[in-house]
UniProtKB/TrEMBL annotation:
Region of interest (Disordered), ranges: 237-267
Domain G-protein coupled receptors family 2 profile: 11-197
UniProt-listed InterPro entries: GCR1-cAMP_receptor, GPCR_2-like_7TM
Signal sequence interval, chain numbering: none
Membrane topology field: Multi-pass membrane protein
Keyword Membrane carried by entry: yes
Protein name (Swiss-Prot/TrEMBL): G-protein coupled receptors family 2 profile 2 domain-containing protein
UniProt keyword annotation of Secreted present: no
PANTHER family: G PROTEIN-COUPLED RECEPTOR 157-RELATED, TRANSMEMBRANE PROTEIN 116
Any GO MF annotation of the entry: G protein-coupled receptor activity
């Protein structure tokens, strides 16, 4: 059934507008991944590889119906059919590769280096498997049906006369991949929520479960609460010779006024070790990890549905009624199939949101300068406190605090055992900053 001129214009406009969105999205993925290390997360590496396939697929979809108008045997029509059959299903294969990484991380305890070692295999599979039929179809034809690549209404692709090949070599494998991908995400989701429920029970009993720092091996659930950990604070009290030694002072932590410099004085030093119990962590770390996983998985799932459901329904309809076509289904297919790169960009931005926010601020500052009307409201005391704050190393569990008296001021030096002592002078009174 031939389409009208107005329908032709609508199809071409939908295909090209959607393709432009995907081209810009793929260009953003490639540019940011190559230029900024903050975007190079393991999952983004696969999105980066998929972006190249999106670009080549959009080259074909931007041609729209121009190849058909030139003739189904023209080089442009055959080239368009070859690109579509090669790169459109490759996107579903890359989504399956991402799901495989999730499976290997959760159930086979693969780390980042092991997953990176699989990337060359993913490249060969995702672009190699669809390349074979796409290339073969360039040379297949018959006197009765003509060449395989011909008028497919939306663009040059597998023609209606070869309808069975659409299901056998394109939509059938794609939906098999989608179903396997969904199965992996459901299986991992069950493990994640069981693990989260286990952590909830541990936190309610005032315990804390050790969470793997690399985010892998989540199927190895902790079986017993871990006792609260303690750390040691060493307080070295220094007093001048003119004062009574071993003078006891009641230490507390109200607001302090800091000064940059303090004169030196001869002091005696005594050390006191205090073992302090870490407070139980009531914030469930599992909530953030679970929601992050669910958000990413649902985005992939929705992208697959939005891309493949309308086009699959359309092609199944033409398989059953080859002499009939529904313009609404054709229009929906022409709109959603070129949007693969756009959906990948949305997922890429969501999984790299902090890096995107940093990039936006840097770009805005470069183009327009620092934001006016927002003076620094940090007081000198707060600025000095922030400057003097130091986070101890992961294996350093002690802080060294030295207190000395100079006139009406109290001089405080603090740092870890490795040195890097910092100094501040406090107003009179037995006050002490928190050891961090």
């Amino acid at each position: 059934m031939a389409i009208t001129a107005s329908q032709d214009h609508a199809l071409v406009a939908a295909e090209r507008v959607a393709s432009v969105f995907s081209v810009f999205g793929a260009a953003f993925i490639i540019a940011t991944f190559l230029s900024d290390s903050k975007f190079r997360k393991p999952i983004n590496r696969l999105v980066f590889y998929a972006a190249w396939g999106n670009l080549f697929a959009n080259v074909a979809t931007l041609i729209a119906r121009s190849g058909i108008k030139l003739g189904v045997t023209s080089p442009l029509c055959q080239f368009q059919g070859f690109l579509i059959h090669w790169f459109l299903p490759a996107d579903a294969l890359w989504t399956f590769a991402m799901a495989c990484n999730v499976y290997l991380s959760f159930f086979r305890q693969y780390d980042a280096s092991q997953l990176r070692g699989l990337e060359w295999r993913y490249l060969g599979a995702c672009y190699g498997f669809p390349f074979v039929p796409a290339l073969v179809f360039l040379f297949v034809g018959s006197d009765g049906k003509g060449k395989v690549y011909g008028d497919a209404v939306l663009w040059c692709w597998v023609s209606t006369e070869w309808n069975a090949l659409r299901i056998a070599t394109f939509y059938g494998p794609v939906w098999l991949i989608i179903l396997v991908t969904m199965f992996i995400y459901v299986k991992v989701g069950v493990v994640v929520f069981r693990w989260r429920r286990h952590l909830l029970s541990l936190n309610q009993s005032e315990g804390r479960a050790d969470i793997p720092s690399n985010g892998y091996a989540m199927n190895q659930l902790p079986t017993s609460p871990v006792s609260p950990k303690t750390y040691e604070v060493t307080i070295s009290s220094q007093v001048p010779h003119s004062h009574t030694p071993n003078q006891q002072r009641n230490l507390r932590s109200p607001r302090n006024t800091y000064h940059e410099d303090a004169p030196s004085t001869n002091v005696d030093q005594t050390n006191t070790n205090v073992v302090v119990e870490r407070p139980p962590i009531r914030t469930l770390d599992a909530n953030k990890a679970t929601m992050s996983y669910c958000k990413t998985a649902m985005l992939f799932f929705l992208a697959l549905l939005c891309t493949w459901v309308p086009s699959t329904v359309n092609r199944v309809y033409t398989l059953v009624w080859p002499d009939d076509s529904v313009f609404g289904l054709d229009f929906a297919s022409g709109l959603v199939l070129p949007l693969q790169g756009f959906w990948n960009t949305i997922i890429y931005i969501v999984t790299s949101l902090p890096a995107c926010q940093t990039l936006w601020e840097e770009t805005r500052t470069t183009l327009f300068g620092p934001r006016a009307g927002r003076p620094d409201r940090t007081t000198p005391a707060l600025a000095l406190a922030k400057h003097n704050r130091r986070v101890l190393g992961s294996h350093d569990t002690r802080a060294n605090v030295t207190v000395s008296k100079h006139g009406s001021k109290r001089v405080v030096n603090y740092g870890n055992e490795e040195g890097n002592m910092r100094q501040a002078m406090m107003s009179s009174g037995p006050t002490l900053p928190h050891a961090r």
